[in-house]
Amino acid sequence: MHNGDFVLDPQLAKDCFEICDLPLSKILLLNDSQYPWFVQVPRINHVSEIVDLNEAQQSQLWYESRILSELLVAQFEPHKLNIAALGNIVSQLHVHHIVRYHHDASWPKPVWGASPSVTYDTGSHTKIIDIMRSELEQKLC
Amino acid sequence: MHNGDFVLDPQLAKDCFEICDLPLSKILLLNDSQYPWFVQVPRINHVSEIVDLNEAQQSQLWYESRILSELLVAQFEPHKLNIAALGNIVSQLHVHHIVRYHHDASWPKPVWGASPSVTYDTGSHTKIIDIMRSELEQKLC
What we know:
CATH superfamily of chain A: HIT-like
Oligomer: homodimer
CATH topology of chain A: HIT family, subunit A
Strand content of chain A: 15-25%
Helix content of chain A: 25-40%
Shape of chain A: globular
Strand order of the largest sheet of chain A: 1-2-3-5-4
Largest interface: A-B, 31 and 31 residues
Number of helices of chain A: 3
């Protein structure tokens, strides 16, 4: 499923840090320190809906989502995971995986538009990226 | 995967119309006429996260989501599908499938909290329910 010609949407590239590439998807950390917020982007150009992927790709998408979600549960012990493919603004298919806590900035609202983003201090996101990259590489990268 | 002991969350029961039961999931129409808004609820008690389902159940969840999504594309020709498992308020696992248009009440915002719900006029939801039940029954019920 390698796609060397894949181009990440410029808005996602601007808003996120790259963690690693799984067989299908690129995994990103959104630059908002209010939530551990990960974005899964299938590395296939010109796809905006999940049903635009073929069946094998959809199976792989959800397999990778499951591995990511299990790691998030283990690493962050969320009160709730929010998993969502919206894409109303950035049309390139991407699936949000957001760790939510009862005490977070927007609980119980969905995160989008609820609280202005707070970027990570210089370097403070690297620990999250390193841990997640290491764990994902052991599983899938 | 039949579960005769399943109890639908009272809030979902209050907010939605039942369409049909698929092998794993109950399919509901949310009573908000602003969007064709469907809710997929695995008929398993005491589950709030997708990763709480076993692997076979997760595969079936996404298979049924795919069939539902393909029908929504065919029936409603959305500009975008929004697919999301949030569950911050209603903890019983449920996956939203929302048909979005560029001219809808909240575009491009996510629907939650964006525009007060507008219930269907008496009977005006039955056409949607009948079509979706018929189509789903041909595929899966």
